[in-house]
Amino acid sequence: MSVENIYLQINRELKEGAHPSDLHDLIEELDIGQKVELMQRLADTDAALILQEMEDYEQADILRLLSKERAKEILKNLASDDAADLIGELSVEEAQEMLQLIEEEEESLDLGELLKYPEDSAGGIMTTEYISLPADIPVEDAIARLREVAPKAETIYYVYVVDEEGLLIGVLSLRDLIASSDGTLLKNIMRHNVISVNAGLDQEEVARIVSKYDLLAVPVVDDQERMLGIVTVDDVIDVLEQEATEDIYHLAGASEIEGMELTEAPVNKVVRLRLPWLLITMIGGVISGSVIGVYKDTLEAIVMLAIFIPVVMGMGGNVGTQSSTIFIRGLATGEIDRSEVWPYFFREIKIGVVMGVICGILISITAFIWQGNPYLGLVVGLSMLITISVATMIGTLVPLLLNKVNIDPAITAGPFVTMIKDFTGLVIYFGIASIFLKHLR
């Protein structure tokens, strides 16, 4: 479909009330040049609506190719937090140039303030387009002022009450305003125990707070409790998706590539990201193979032992992966507090022992019925019990120790858990087999 046809279709659907996300789907197949052409032709507000649905790196690419005047107009129509995120994707020189373009505008002051904060902090994802009112005005005046400022606000569901110095002293909802009778002062209906976050707080912690208290927005304050902005729930959803994606990539032994989607990145960049962890796993495999070499006489004497190597190793691997994944996820979501990690560790060992007993008994019976040797059943069963118990311990202990030394366990736990678990699993299996060797012949 040509740019002209898409332009006409977008204008038609906008008149019918289409959502920007659906309109963005129309242009996904266009190349960057066609998208720039489309952005040049659309109305300022429409271009901003569609641009903010794109990935940050794509927004930056388009902004670089637009005329300076056109880029300025689109930036002015973006929410302050979205505009700050977009400018943050540019180089220092490009960002300064964009800020100079709008330096006469009031918006440039907000953008400059937002860009001072790390992009993954509360200050970095907040918007300055919120509603704040003094405490000593009546409800009817508050509603009248709300009508004036609502079109420019990110959300009107919460009204924040501040004093003369800008200190956050209360909050009330739109429902509180509407339900109160005329003449009632805001200070008499506001809630004083306001849930707020410091501007320097990590965005993941902000997301947890919004989720914990079921907020539509959370106010952002400085160290003196002066109100700076708000983080809205739509930004929190983006944070949760971003953090979940990052953790999943790390657990898989990969990571994100700056400025592009991992699924669209060049082959050489993806290989550089993923290969180191595979090499660690390969080294672990060689170490595990050396264990088999040490016990080669045992394996040659009792060939049937080889039959059960995959099931013992596989069960240990599954349990270790379960334990590390649950522990890392618990840390990431705050379900496991840092002060509770050791009690959780010992609880996980108990779980591992119970699972090991059950699986050990089942595999022991299977080995005995299959091969007709009770001692083989005993060896395989004991090995399964101990391997699962140890794998549970390793799967929790490795990320726990990494977390203690402030290393993200999601990045490195997987390869190290695999390597240690394989080594210990084989040592356990052949060690027990050696003890009962004369009964297995």
Describe the fold and architecture:
This protein is mostly helical and 441 residues long. It folds into three domains: 3-116, MgtE N-terminal fold; 132-233, CBS-domain; 262-440, SLC41 divalent cation transporters, integral membrane domain (Tetracycline Repressor, domain 2, Orthogonal Bundle), CATH 1.10.357.20. It contains 22 helices and six strands. It has helices at 3-15, 20-27, 32-41, 44-51, 56-65, 68-76, 80-88, 92-101, 106-114, 122-125, 139-149, 174-179, 186-189, 203-213, 233-251, 267-294, 296-301, 309-333, 341-371, 374-404, 409-435, 437-440, and strands spanning 132-133, 158-162, 168-173, 197-198, 217-221, 227-232. Strand 1, helix 11 (139-149) and strand 2 (158-162) form a beta-alpha-beta unit. The model has no long low-confidence stretch (mean pLDDT 80).
